[in-house]
Design goal:
5-stranded mixed β-sheet, binds zinc ion, 19% strand, binds 5'-O-[(R)-(carboxyoxy)(hydroxy)phosphoryl]adenosine, 9 helices, Nucleotidyltransferase, domain 5
Length: 339
């Protein structure tokens, strides 16, 4: 038996400051400090995000280590998000990770944020089956919409992606049109639960192959709302649930069409979802139904591993650690980073 591996993972790519401690594939602690400051601005303000990371990072890491019930001297390595993300935010996490690894004289592991959303499924959780390679992953977040053929831990191929907005942006921008605060995705989900998904019809964009487009849908929704507000100034308030349910419905249809096409093209019937939008209850239910309907096997992460978190950084860190795939103090953060 090999010695137990304790990984401290740090995620600070956008507006959440997160730290987790893993013992091998098991999560001992998973702490996230969400930044509410962005709500009033209708989106993430990069300068405010990096300042808040600076305030949060020490207490968040401290709590993660304490909750894990270990001391920092027991850590085997430190994993951190190298990118993609907001530069100022990434720098806070990477600088902290580098200094701490140096002080403790332990290895440093740089992690790709999107690999982490894909590989979050390999965290040990009771009663949760792990996908087998190859599988298809659909990463749906505020910054990405991708269909990925995952051949092994570190061999992944993007076979479809958005040509403009990410699906999370489609949710957030639609919510903004409805006057809802940022991030609006969870609110659309909440209101949609009481609405009729077929109340209003929106059209799907025509995009070739496995790629996506969401910017046209946003414009369609904007015109639809403007037109109805002219006729009835209370249109949004009176029909909020139906509007949200209809928006969510069309977004789910767009995603499902492409994932069905990906299954046809690759013959792979194991589908894993990841990223903040995979918290959406409509998407989770629709995907689960495909197990009965089409004989697919689906992998839907626990809520805490869908939106940005450090446990997912930790599981990638663990697998890289096993392969001795280390970084050093010269590793640079990257706002954009190859897959
Ligand atoms: O992965 P994530 O936390 O951060 C990025 O890397 O982007 O994803 C955030 C996105 C936001 O657009 C947010 O509105 C969306 O995930 N989101 C949801 C839900 N929960 C989070 N969208 C729809 N329904 C939800 N329940
Ligand atoms: Zn993310």
């Amino acid at each position: 038996m090999s010695a137990p591996t304790y990984i401290l993972a740090i995620e600070s790519s956008c507006d959440d400051t997160a730290a987790a401690v893993l013992l091998d594939r098991k999560v001992l602690s998973n702490v996230v400090a969400r930044q509410e400051i962005h709500e009033e601005f209708g989106g993430v303000v990069p300068e405010l995000a990096s300042r808040a990371h600076q305030q949060n990072i020490v207490p968040v890491i401290d709590v993660a280590i304490k909750k894990a019930g270990i001391t920092k001297e027991q850590l085997s390595a430190i994993a951190f998000t190298q990118g993609p993300g907001l530069m100022g935010s990434l720098l806070v996490g990477s600088s902290f990770a580098k200094s701490m690894a140096l002080a403790l004289n332990i290895p440093l592991v740089a992690v790709h944020h999107m690999h982490a959303h894909v590989l979050a499924h390999f965290i040990d959780e009771e009663g949760y089956d792990k996908p087998e390679f190859p599988f298809l992953a659909m990463t749906i977040s505020g910054g990405h919409t991708q269909i990925i053929k995952v051949k092994s831990f570190f061999d992944m191929e993007i076979i479809g992606e958005t040509t403009d907005d990410a699906v999370g942006e489609a949710f957030d921008k639609s919510a903004k049109i409805l006057g809802l605060p940022y991030p609006g995705g969870p609110l659309i989900d909440k209101f949609a639960k009481d609405g009729n998904p077929k109340a209003y019809q929106f059209t799907k964009p025509k995009v070739d192959g496995l790629d996506f487009s969401f910017s046209g849908l946003k414009t369609q929704i904007l015109y639809f709302i403007q037109k109805n507000l002219k006729e009835n100034p209370n249109f949004i308030e009176e029909n909020k649930a139906d509007i949200c349910a209809s928006i969510q419905h069309i977004i789910i249809q767009i995603l499902m069409d492409k994932i069905k096409m990906a299954v046809e093209q690759t013959g792979i019937k194991q589908i894993a979802i990841g990223g903040g939008v995979s918290a959406n209850s409509g998407i989770r239910t629709t995907l689960k139904e495909t197990e009965q309907k089409y004989g697919w096997k689906t992998f839907i992460p626990k809520f805490e591993y869908t939106t940005d978190n450090a446990a997912m950084i930790g599981i990638v860190g663990y697998h890289k650690f096993l392969e001795k795939h280390f970084s050093d103090a010269s590793t640079v953060s990257k706002a954009r980073i190859e897959f």
